Amino acid sequence: MAYKWDSSLEIGDKTVDAQHKELVEKFNDLLASLALGRPVNELENALDFLCQYTVEHFVAEEALMLQVDFPGYKEHKSQHEFFKVTATEFAEQFKREGLSEDLSIQLRLNIGDWLITHIKGEDSKIKGYLK
Q1: pLDDT, average across residues 122-131
Q2: Is residue 122 part of a domain?
Q3: What is the pTM of this model?
Q4: Are 10 and 17 in contact (CB under 8 A)?
Q5: Dihedral sign, CA of 101, 9, 66, 14?
Q6: Residue 36 falls within a domain, yes or no?
Q7: Cβ atoms within 10 A of the Cβ of 57, count?
Q8: How many other CB atoms are found less than 10 A from the CB of residue 83?
Q9: Contact 15, 60 (CB under 8 A)
Q10: CATH of the domain at 115
């Protein structure tokens, strides 16, 4: 089941919104690759890309929060740090152990669901501080 991009995921900043959309699309691509049983190196590359792109996105989003004096910056940044560790651990576990049903489920819950929940819940709070 793919994640659907819609306007409820927009915070009102073109750059951050485009990055969020890209993250959702790339995660959906990863899910499709998993479902189709793509070669392991393709899955590793997709997961590595997501981890790298997420870090780049967090840098941009955190700069935006500082620019607009977002009061929840420290807590928000700590959530980003937690996510980066989690994503890296999944990528490393996948490289060590390969794909398993449990890893696939955890990937969806701890990466995909977290991403959507974070955008809708935490990132949407930034919207009120954009000019």
Answers
A1: 94
A2: yes
A3: 0.91
A4: yes
A5: positive
A6: yes
A7: 18
A8: 19
A9: yes
A10: 1.20.120.50
